[in-house]
Structure formats: C-alpha cells, structure tokens
Amino acid sequence: MSPESFDSEQQFRLIVEAAPNGMLLVDESGTIVMVNTSALHQFGYEKEELLGKSVEMLIPGPSRSDHQQYRTGFIKAPEKRLMGGGRELFGLRKDGGEFSAEIGLTPIQTTKGMWVVASIVDISERKRLEMQLRRAERLAELGTLASGMAHEIGTPMNVILGRAEYLLQRTADEGMKKGLATIVTQVERITKVMNQLLTFARRRTPERRAVDLGVIVDDSLEMFQERIAHSRITVDKSIESSLPPVHADRDQLIQVLINLVMNSLHAMPEGGRLRLSLAREGSHVCLGVSDTGHGMPEEIRSKVFEPFITTKDFGKGTGLGLTVVKGIIEEHGGTIFVESVVDKGTTFWIRLPLDEAQDGGVKRQ
Questions:
Q1: How many other C-beta atoms can be found within 10 angstroms of the C-beta atom of residue 49?
Q2: I want to staple 210 with a disulfide (CB 3.0 to 4.6 A). Which of 87, 206, 245, 258 is the partner?
Q3: 257, 220 Cβ separation under 8 angstroms
Q4: If we measure between CA atoms, which residue out of 187, 189, 200 comes closest to residue 145?
Q5: What pLDDT score does 126 carry?
Q6: What pLDDT band is residue 344 in, cutting at 50, 70 and 90?
Q7: What is the mean pLDDT of residues 52-73?
Q8: Given the DSSP bridges, would you call strands 284-291 and 272-281 parallel, antiparallel or unpaired?
Q9: Residue 24, pLDDT above cutoff 70
Q10: pLDDT computed for residue 138 by the predictor
C-alpha cells in the first residue's frame, strides 16, 4: 500500500468515525470491515465483536435470507440508495432487541472489489412519536363521535328503557315479561357501552388523596363475591401489611380493579384461580392480578391496551376496558405490564408511586 492510499484510507476512517449516524463498511462477501462508534452504540457491541463477522448478524432472523439475496443483487448492480428507500427495516441488537431503522447504501469500488458503506439511523423514537400522534388523532375523533352518539342514542334509549320498565311492572303475561326483560337488559348493555366510550374519550382529571390499595382490592372483590362463589373460582390474596398509601383517585382505581377482575373471570368460564398480590417495591407498590384462564397469543398480548382489541366473543366486549385502565394508571404516574401464555393464564402487573408524605404506613388488620 502506497503512502498516498494509506493517507486516503485514514481520512476515510476519520470521516466514518466522526459521522453522527451509525456507519458500517461491508465487503462483497458481506463481512464487516469497518464500524464506527455510533453503530456500536446502536447495536450494543464492542468493535472486536463485529469486525470480520457477517453483516447478517445485525439483521433479525426472519429477514436474514431476504437480506442475503438483496445484498447479492446490490453487489451485482450497485446503485446508491438514499435513506428511507420505501422499505421498513429493522436492526438486531446484541441483547436480542430490535429497532426500526433507516439505512442508506453507498457502493465504493476498491482494489478488493465492490464494498458498501451503510449509514444507519435508529428511528424507533420517531416511530413511537408518530404512533402517539396517530393515536391522539384517533382519540380526538372518537371523542367527537362518542359525544354525538351519547346525545343521539342516549335519549331514545332512555325512552325505550322507561317504557319497557313501565310495561314490565304492569303486565301479568309471563311471555310478555320475558320479552320486556330482554329489552331492558339489552338497553342497559347499550348504555354501558356508551358510558365506556365516553369514559374512554373524555376521562376526567383524577381527584387524588391518600388511598389504601389493600382496601380497594377488598372492596373490588366484594362486588364479585356472588359471581365468584358460583363460578368454581378460588381467590388467593397476598397483601403486604403496613403499606404506605398511594396518592390516587379511589374511584378510578376501583374502576381499574373491576376491569381486571372482570377480564380474569371471563377468561375462566370453567373455573380456575384468581390471585391478587400487593407488595412494596422501593418507592412504588406493585399490584398483581393473575388468572389461570385461556391466556392470549402474542399478537393479541402486544396490542391488548390499544382501543377495540378484545379476546371476548363478538358482542361481549368493546375492547376499551384495558385502554381505559392503562390511561388511568399512566395519569397516576404508574405503569402497567401484561404477561400471558395461551391455555396457562394471564397476569397484569401495576406499579404505582407511594405517597411518602404520609408518616408511617397504613396498618391492615
């Protein structure tokens, strides 16, 4: 190698290293021959772990064979490709995590063959913000729709309900009573759906005060006492004593528990075990609601907090309950996470910040 070519290579390496984007230099066989610090941070590797390795190790498994074919075709007909060339691309980190990426390719003819410079931008945060924006737009549209429906549907539903209840009280005909009772039940169901829509679209600001989560668990379970007794479902409670309170809206947290317990009961039509746990984790309290029901496949579990996603049969759920739950928990500065295995069961984990302003703990008997 002549001094002139060495200087040129050194300059190239300095430019690559200084680039704000992740940069890889790959030879014709797909071997990584150069990588900058930004790329190492993106993928979570040390330089020695990537140099001399196949670039396919940075591609998620399902896309590797496609990438090999695409790379071979690119080498045969090299053409500069700008960022965001219309394909949804993903990178694979060392820890197994994936991230959305935009990748620009620049072919470089060298004495060793056609090499390719790949410029990589992690766009995960941008994708997340775009998704939040789309969701906000959907929520705004839903709020307008729900308000209009509440007015247009609510009034005639109240009239129908009132007349049906009036006739139900005055008829002695058993067939008529059965039919009217069905009307009342279905109108109440429509009203419940409308209320869920309004709650989802126009959730009020929490009215917070010191709240004992253990009491909320007990109060929520009491509402289902009769149903649990007739459903061959056993209940286990594991509530840590002397927990400090949380600074929260009691009614909204009861709404959260009702939604989660109801979902668990629906998931166990043949009976099973419902477990509720409450324990301190540092400056937070962790609430677990677990069942031994039918569970959820991954494609449902990953979207379970999105609007209108439900595992219930058609007509038995709006798919808004868990979206409301997530919104309430996040407004309280907490987090909610779900684990689920098909035919094994589901567990929801909620973490809420403790109200450390309260001196001592709330001792439970």
A1: 15
A2: 245
A3: yes
A4: 200
A5: 84
A6: very high
A7: 85
A8: antiparallel
A9: yes
A10: 67
Count of Cβ atoms closer than 10 Å to residue 359 Cβ: 6
Among 18, 45, 47, 21, which residue's Cα sits nearest to residue 34?
Answer: 47
Q: Write down the pLDDT at residue 48.
A: 94
Our CA dihedral for 260, 261, 266, 267, rounded to 10 degrees, sits at 70
C-beta atoms surrounding 161 within 10 Å: 17
Query: What is the mean predicted confidence (pLDDT) over 295-311?
Result: 78
CA 20 – CA 251 distance, rounded (Å): 49
Residue 53 CA to residue 66 CA, distance in Å, equals 18
* pTM strictly above 0.85: no
Sheet arrangement for strand 22-26: 32-35, 22-26, 113-122, 98-110, 89-92
Average pLDDT over the chain, rounded to an integer? 82
Angle at 68 between CA 37 and CA 27, to 5 degrees: 50
Q: Give the whole-angstrom CA distance, residue 79 versus residue 81.
A: 6
Cα-based torsion angle of the residue sequence 196, 198, 201, 206 in order, rounded to the nearest 10 degrees: -90
Residue type, 73: G
How far is it, in rounded angstroms, from Cα 334 to Cα 352?
4
- Lowest mean per-residue pLDDT among 89-98, 280-289, 311-320, 345-354: 311-320
The closest alpha carbon to 259, from 197, 319, 206, 191, belongs to: 319
- Label residue 36 exposed, middle or buried (CB < 10 Å: 0-12, 13-18, 19+): buried
DSSP secondary structure string, 262-283? Answer: HHHHHT-TT-EEEEEEEEEETT
Annotate 202-225 with DSSP letters as a single string: SPPPP--EEE-HHHHHHHHHHHTH
| DSSP letters for 84-130 | S-S--EEEE-TTS-EEEEEEEEEEEEETTEEEEEEEEEE-HHHHHHH
